[in-house]
Amino acid sequence: MGKVKTASEVIELTDILDDQPLLRHLQSLSIGDTIELEVAGVRGSWQRIAGAIQPLGDTRAAWLATRQGPTPTVPIGLGSSTYLATFEGRNRFWDIPESQIR
User: Fold this and answer.
1) pTM for the full model?
2) Which of 6, 11, 42, 85 is the most buried (most CB within 10 A)?
């Protein structure tokens, strides 16, 4: 997982640090393509624009809130398509008696 500077309303591709594979993947997208990313712990949709990616929908408010924070960089990575599937599988075991803390 790399880092990204929180300097503007969009993420400039030049502001992505320490994750060359992610940067190359984002650069390979066509303008208008969308991608699921996890930025500052928030998973959401982003759209490729010229030289940058912009947050879509609810992701926009989360990104703007992140920019208000004290840190100049936040973590960024690809959103995993198996995230919800693996969470659902683990969630089944939370309510069984063997998992209760005594």
Assistant:
1) 0.73
2) 11
